[in-house]
Amino acid sequence: MKSERCLVIYNEPAEDALPDELDVLDQVNFIDNTLTTLGYRVERRGITENFFNEIAGIADEGYEFVFNLVESVGQKAEILYFIPALLNMHHIPYTGCPVEAAFVTGSKVLARRIMKAHGIPVAGGYRVSETDQLVPGRKYILKPVWEDGSLGITEESVFTFDGTVPEIVKEKNDRHWFIEDFIDGREFNVSVKAGPDGPEVLPPAEMTFNGYPEDMPRIVSWKAKWEEDTFQYDNSMRNFPDDLSDRLSRNIRDAVLACWSTFGLKGYARVDMRVDADENVYVLEVNANPCISPDSGFISAATHAGYSHSEIISHIINDLNK
What we know:
By secondary structure, the protein is α+β, with helices and mostly antiparallel strands. It has eleven helices and 13 strands.
């Protein structure tokens, strides 16, 4: 049995927190229980807007490592990378993506530029101030630059450009929103984790949209992900198809491994992508520290691959940032 002390840190939810923010508490309980099973002496601490002092205080407390579950700071995703940056500055070993990966993947716009430069396939993208580049008759999707968890994504986010800028676009700015070509096809969330022989791509999870009417975009919207008792929530489901063609399986795997290498990911990650009718893959975003609650896509994929919860967390710990 181990005797090392470790600390689980997480963003302290606000009193009026939405479901996506409260989800971190499920992650904390899961990680705490699993680390305890592994023999660690676990402590937990919520991180607030006073994070500079809170992280500095951790440095003198003698923890073997910190399990970083902080998903936002003061409900702002823009400064999420401050947490690994401070852990790094204070020489505190921590799990998950390093500060560099947190910074460059935190902005979907910056991540897209890097992927494009490295030959990783992405859909066409535009600033909201570049609507003059949109082509009438084509479908597009309006997306937040910084937020994860489908925050800000609704069915109205997908639109067919008719030559007139939609109202939903007019009210947005380049700092927080961008437009992307909408790939009308299949959607996959593909998890990847560190292993003894390098990164391991886990079974691809496909999102299916059962019974969606023709005029409803097949996307993982906010309602589909978080709002129980809605049509979208009840009819969007995750499954692990076993009949993918060799070409599609290879394209998915190659894209995920390229993201892992390009962004310098560690521990665990998830790559979201869409696939067109010709089985061409387009990476939507890279989630450097994805949700890791028991019912999350990452844990579901790892257990589908045959790993126990203890094995999954052990592999993450073995890939610490030291």
